[in-house]
Amino acid sequence: MDPESFLDIANQVIKLKMFPYFDIAYCVLCALSVREDLGNEPRTLQCQSIQVTDQHGRTTVIDSFNEKVYSSQVFSRKHPLACWLSYMLVVFAGGMVCNALLAEPILAPIKNTPQVLVATLVWYVIFYTPADIGYKLAKFLPIKIVCAAMKEVYRCKKVYDGVSHAGKLYPNAFLIMIIIGTIKGNGAGFVRLFERLIRGVWTPTAMEFMQPSFYTKASLVASIIFVLDKKTDLISAPHALVYFGIVIFFVYFKLSSILLGIHDPFVPFENLVCALFFGGIWDSLSRLLGSGQVKEEAKDNKKTN
Fold it and tell me: d(Cα 219, Cα 233) in Å, to the nearest integer?
């Protein structure tokens, strides 16, 4: 492809408006994640036969029936407010957490009424449409792939906006820019504990710091690249190409996770770094030396006996 044409495409990607189409795709996947976290194993509701006798002595028997429903459907019908609140927390998590860290109004992300209405409409379609048609359409693979690709474009935009916003408040604080950009990119992962708590589930081990997901790691890498691009001269490429490259990175690995099952390409590098710099080699050496010493002591004990 001609470099100028490639640069033109990159410039068009930067100028994409997120509302409403990218917001809808993002909200659809957020609703799917909440519903899948609630559980989608089918349950059978049974009703026994009931005899009803009227005033004339005639008896009517209501036959028993079986109906399969999902556990997420049961919860959404019994606790619609908790379901909606947990979903909205997932949708606006990045902005809320970042505002709390930057001493800004926490509820500012939901001041945009059209965004709130779109998010609520998507939630209703995924959870409450007749015959569960909304959920089934969202799970249809071609639709899910399109929504996933659009969500990753949206993620890149949020990471860049987070880095830019933090850069205006703290121009020389690279670490703050990276932290805000990372949380903006995967805010839902950092509020999972509280989001489940709204639904009455206490999972203290669901901490993103203990087991960071691929999206947190990718947002961290993207934040570092954006900081280097904005604040240093280490990256000489045009900003549009840097932005477009990160979009391609996000979309490629998201589609790879859906189609090929590649969930975290960072794992081999993490294992190598841990082995080299965080005690992996020394622990292995100490185990080997320790086992050797144990064998020598066992031999000495046999000789003395």
Answer: 21
